[in-house]
Predict the structure.
Amino acid sequence: ATMPPLLSAIANAGRHGVLVKSAVVMERLAQVDAVALDKTGTLTEGTPRVTHIRPLTGCGLSKDELLRLAAAAEHPSEHPLARAIVDAARTRGLHIPAAEDFASTPGTGVTATVAGRKIAVGSSARLLDGGIHPATAVAAGLEEEGRTAVLVTADGTPVGALGIADRLREEAVGTVSALHELTGTAPVLVTGDNPRAAARLAAEAGIADVRAGLLPQDKVTAVQEMEQAGRKVLVVGDGVNDAPALAAAHTGIAMGRAGSDLALETADAVVVRDELAAIPVVVRLSRQARRLVA
Ligand code: ADP
Ligand code: MG
């Protein structure tokens, strides 16, 4: 027997490194007319590096001590920023002490007890909660340079900031314009990162519509607003923080290589081979299959 069009489209998608979980997903994918892309790990390579280590003056910590505390707290986390911080500490040959009471809040950061001190590492906007502190200026300075500024606090007091940079994927610009052409709508960037770093990366990727500083639930709201305006939205993401939006979207695709288990389970399809450019290819395949079915 010849294979039904939707099934051969699934097989074809597999050849392009994309696991589409069902024929129904293939059908829904053919309907998408708008795209919301996550930043970290989706538009970017997802292998960020620590570029700046800034202990606050007067906190009594050296660069290595600041990095060591942050790495200890981040050690259990699977977030790309956490891996960057742990890698930076290892590269500097630092011993990373054990942490207790680890907890993570998607879209915000982590907390843990390190050597008897309560350490928090995460978004400066969230940890400072709009308050003004010398750390605000340090973080803003890093963000002006397009970095993700991660704040470190000890027992509630800011002690320093880390500047972290990630590179745009090589195929990001081509993918954004291919998706724009296919859907007739300019793709949107939805990110938990700060507006400055987000705007800078969006400009590089050719995206004009940027929604930054979003918590996981805000990403859902952004998608729901698009869907209420009559769009069938394809969400592409990789993190735990993307899972609710992947679930809420008409169709959700997760980036597989560094993607969190929750994102891979929640998404309707997974880019296994880590090539963003496979996404427009698969959208095209789904549409061809739909024409054959109809
Ligand atoms: P994105 O939506 O771009 O993938 P996330 O929602 O995962 O980003 O993270 C948003 C912001 O929250 C990060 O830019 C960072 O400031 C903070 N954050 C989240 N998780 C962590 C973590 N494990 N360590 C430090 N900061 C974190
Ligand atoms: Mg992400």
Notes: Residues 38, 40-42, 237-239, 242 surround magnesium ion (ligand 2) (CB under 6 Å). DSSP finds 13 helices and 13 strands in the chain. The mean pLDDT is 94.
